[in-house]
Amino acid sequence: MVRDTVFSLIEVEEYAKTTSLRYYQTVFEAPFLAETKEYYLHTASKLVSEMEVSEYMQEVVETMKTARRRGQRFLHPTSITKFTRECEARLVEDYQNSYLYSQLQPMVQEERRQDLKNIFHLLNGIPRALDPLLDKFEERIKSQGLAAVRPWNTDKDKATSGNVVEFMGAVMGVHSHYHQLISDLFSSHKLFFSALDRGCRVFVNAQENHTHQPRAPILLARYCDQLLRKSSKGVGEQEVEDRLEEVITVFRYLDDKDVFQRFYSRMLARRLMQSLSVSMEMEEGMIQRLKHACGFEYVARLQRMVVDMKLSEDCMASFQEHLSISSSSLPLAFTTLVLQSAAWPFSKPTGNFNVPPQMLSVIEKFERFYETKYTGRKLSWLYHMSLGDLRLNYLKKQYTVSATTHQMAYCWLSTPLNNTPSAPCYSTLDWTTKR
């Protein structure tokens, strides 16, 4: 009956194509909106005087839902927005500063989920009305995050050698909690995600002493190293992938990404050279994630290192084929990596090393092969980074010992060469390993 009466005011002027709503707007809409304003002014004043903020917000949410339903049922579509806007102005805007905002601090600190959901629902449609809530929310994230990472900022030993899994757990615990809260209470609103990003950036980069090297980039690089090593026990492949995604989440907040890159490249080099990586696919996947986050230039050296490893495999295969074709053999098992000096974070040796005869013939054969295959390239041997396995016989038992090149040189000094006994003396040892 009410709907028919309202819409009859429109039907009266349907013949006037351009102004068919004029009579409806003059006779019904304008007085109706004026009455709506008066009604909700009185309603809001009464509710505020009788209720606490939490109760008031819940009541207003239900009142607004009812008003929208009635508007959609009885009003012309052009009037619905005007009607709900009038309700919102009287019930929310008139009291947002003096009443609703007064409880923002305890709402956020105590995480009153229903209150937060209600106040977001009420303020979301009003321009800039969410700003105070966003500020409180961001401050809460900062304080919670700073408390979570404080042990790594105040304890120097914990920052350099502490449990990196605990550090990541502390950071991601705060991030995941508030990320989920935004989804649950604030309808995944982009402004709240921006507040989350700002808050996380503050506590991730926090330093008690600004004279020290940034700690978060180093801890994050160490965490990556732990995940990508073969020694990562009890962690499945999918779990590693998920944790690497978390690494990128934290990485995006780092202010000192160059520090992360420096430490990450050193640890990557160690994993690749010592065959400690879980898999090359995961190494490449992590580099691709970093590339997506920071661009090609950031990962150029890292990618070159991976490429060098693949090319080294091909080079060694060609060398073995060359030995087979030339009917040549080596006196010992030999594998080498040919790496570009500009891509790898290596320091050059500071002293001289006289190569033992047992190794010299192998090195010379490889150099001749390499110079023939790659004209114009020069090899520089990094003996201080080389390793080898020695088989030792002691009391009728055989032992395999992993040793550095310098350690092997010392062992060979006391080993007969071509059936000629030799015994090391201090001067010989000093000459062989002089630095």
From TrEMBL:
Pathway annotation: Protein modification; protein ubiquitination
Gene Ontology cellular-component annotations: cullin-RING ubiquitin ligase complex
Superkingdom of the organism of origin: Eukaryota
Stored InterPro entries: Cullin, Cullin-like_AB, Cullin_homology, Cullin_homology_sf, Cullin_N, Cullin_repeat-like_dom_sf
Record domain Cullin family profile: where: 215-409
MF term (GO), any: ubiquitin protein ligase binding
Pfam short name (any one): Cullin
A biological-process GO annotation: ubiquitin-dependent protein catabolic process
Gene3D superfamilies: Cullin Repeats, Cullin, Chain C, Domain 2
Residue spans crossing the bilayer: none
Family assignment from sequence similarity: Belongs to the cullin family.
Matches recorded under PANTHER family: CULLIN
Name of the protein in question: Cullin-2
